[in-house]
Design brief:
Elements (H helix, E strand, L loop, with lengths): L17 E5 L1 H8 L5 H8 L22 E5 L2 E2 L19 E8 L12 E7 L8 E9 L11 E11 L4 E10 L13
Parallel strand pairs: 2-5
Antiparallel strand pairs: 1-4, 2-3, 4-5, 6-7, 7-8
Length: 187
């Protein structure tokens, strides 16, 4: 048996594999609505199932198939050790872009039956020190007190000196309870 392989002159658009890039600007726009990475992706990529609004991403698929989630090319789980929390490994404020590769996923590694989601983290910006600080407070109801309030804060500093680039970031989130509205039966 002789097997030969050769490179073809196909264009990227002719490939069976499709790549979607979610830019830093799109991530920032979606972060005004949610800090959930799964929700950001499902808002911008229709075949991705809606986020379940939980800390677990179990059941979130691309057209019924499980994605392989990577951060800077490093897989966050495998089919042998699924965690269900792959999308919550890194805060959305630290994402430069999200690359989603669909189709022909057998070449992308074990566990990529639906797609490969590669989250690319931010890099230090050249020049002097840059700082970023944000505070968020949200509530699923009109009640602005109690245990339904969610709080989140981010702080990052980055820059570069002569021979060193640096980026430090800290994020804290306290998710409140989600209460279903009480329905009283009418007489």
């Amino acid at each position: 048996m002789v097997v030969s392989v050769s490179r073809t002159n196909n264009e990227k658009n002719d490939s069976a594999q499709v790549t979607h890039i979610i830019s830093e600007q799109e991530i920032a726009q979606q972060r005004q609505l949610t800090s959930d990475t799964s929700q950001i992706i499902s808002n911008l990529l229709l075949p991705f199932s809606p986020a379940r609004q939980k800390m677990s991403g179990s059941g979130e698929t691309l057209r019924g198939r499980m994605p392989l989630v990577m951060i800077d090319g490093i897989p966050q789980s495998s089919p042998l050790r699924p965690t269900g929390r792959e999308m919550h490994t890194i805060d959305a404020s630290m994402m430069e872009r999200i690359e989603i590769m669909q189709g022909a996923n057998a070449t992308n590694g074990v566990g990529a039956t639906g797609c490969v989601i590669n989250i690319v983290t931010k890099r230090a910006k050249p020049g002097s020190m840059n700082e970023y600080f944000s505070v968020e407070a949200t509530s699923p109801t009109s009640e602005l007190s109690g245990n339904t309030m969610s709080y989140k804060t981010n702080y990052s500093v980055n820059g570069s000196e002569e021979y060193i680039d640096y980026l430090f970031a800290l994020s804290y989130e306290d998710q409140g309870l989600f209460k279903m509205p009480t329905i009283t039966p009418s007489a």
